[in-house]
Amino acid sequence: MALKPGVVSGEDYITLVNACKEGGYALAAVNCVGTDSVNAVMEAAAKNKSDIIIQLSNGGAQFYAGQGMSDGFQAKVLGAVSAAQHVHLLAEHYGICVVLHTDHANRKLVPWVDALIDHSESHYKATGRPLYTSHMLDLSEESIDDNLSECARMLKRMAPLDMSLEIELGITGGEEDGVGHEIEEGADSSHLYTQPEDVLQAYDLLSPLGHFSVAASFGNVHGVYKPGNVKLRPEILRNSQALVQETHATAANPLNLVFHGGSGSEKAKIAEALTYGVFKMNIDTDTQFAFAESVGKYVMDNARAFKYQIDPEDGTPYKKQYDPRKWLRAGEEGFIARLDEAIADLGSAGKSLAQ
Ligand SMILES: [Zn+2]
């Protein structure tokens, strides 16, 4: 099951997903906002001999294009295209397989995803491969029928380009990049758990159309929150798999499941989720903090260099300390150390299919 190093799509992506599920491990899907985070992700993956998923939220893509671009929508599209081109150029030289993905898109962001599929269409014509491996639609705030009919429309566009679609069923608590849901203290939290019947409905509609994955809510929360009234219940994933398997007489774990809001989760619940066909776990909040913590420590340890270009008392030049390659690298190192931990939790170290 060896794959060529670089960005994977189509059959190679399916091989990668199936290897994860059969091997009982998952890939970290890491939110990136620029070349620092993209390169740190590839470095961590190469160091751990793990395949990896690089994903951009709409806000991350906009930041990638530059906060100064006046047309925000264009920036979201072109930033995502730019990040993908960067990864297509470099990934094979890191010697691992990289999945390129975009994160949460609600109804307002459907035009963003459609515009990115347009770019994959032209990329496919030129190279025989899409620009992105997969995109994500999060219409979990809408009725199940509205959610799934839009997902079906999108998957029909994507499947001929060898692309995969990730959908969300049930509401993951918390907030990420302005897309989110409040959890009130003491409120009834049953709506935060995905219903296996909804997952079956998605499978019935989407599996004839192309390759897809499901982010199901089992008490997971975006970001890190105080422990509240929502408990992680990975058995919801098991029950969803069982219902589809029984209904369609498939092999075990027919669904490709995604764990959103993995930051701050108990390690035992992560391990349990992996046995139910979870092949991807999103990580953002924890890697953001790791980057910031390392930069913060560097700045505090070298405080004078961030105040004076030259020491006003003894004339010492501080260029070696304030050089952005020093403090950005400190951030990258913290980011990589946190990813080492995530890759260990997910069991993907040493499992890269790239050869
Ligand atoms: Zn989500």
UniProtKB/TrEMBL annotation:
Binding site for Zn(2+) 2: 138, 168
InterPro entries: Aldolase_TIM, FBA_II, Fruct_bisP_bact
Keyword terms of this UniProt record: Calvin cycle, Glycolysis, Lyase, Metal-binding, Zinc
Residues reported in the UniProt entry to bind Zn(2+) 1: 104, 222, 260
Record-annotated active site: 103 (proton donor)
Top-level lineage group: Bacteria
Enzyme Commission number: 4.1.2.13
Pathway: Carbohydrate biosynthesis; Calvin cycle; Carbohydrate degradation; glycolysis; D-glyceraldehyde 3-phosphate and glycerone phosphate from D-glucose: step 4/4
Known cofactor(s): Zn(2+)
Alphabetical GO biological process terms: gluconeogenesis; glycolytic process; reductive pentose-phosphate cycle
Cofactor binding: number and manner: Binds 2 Zn(2+) ions per subunit. One is catalytic and the other provides a structural contribution.
GO molecular function, one term: fructose-bisphosphate aldolase activity
Reaction catalysed by this enzyme: beta-D-fructose 1,6-bisphosphate = D-glyceraldehyde 3-phosphate + dihydroxyacetone phosphate
SUPFAM superfamilies tied to this protein: Aldolase
Residues given in the record as dihydroxyacetone phosphate binding sites: 223, 261-263, 282-285
GO CC field: cytosol
NCBIfam families: cbbA, FruBisAldo_II_A, PRK09197.1
Family statement drawn from the similarity comment of this UniProt entry: Belongs to the class II fructose-bisphosphate aldolase family.
Function: Catalyzes the aldol condensation of dihydroxyacetone phosphate (DHAP or glycerone-phosphate) with glyceraldehyde 3-phosphate (G3P) to form fructose 1,6-bisphosphate (FBP) in gluconeogenesis and the reverse reaction in glycolysis.
PANTHER family: FRUCTOSE-BISPHOSPHATE ALDOLASE, FRUCTOSE-BISPHOSPHATE ALDOLASE CLASS 2
Protein name listed in UniProt: Fructose-bisphosphate aldolase
Originating organism: Paremcibacter congregatus
Lineage: Bacteria, Pseudomonadati, Pseudomonadota, Alphaproteobacteria, Emcibacterales
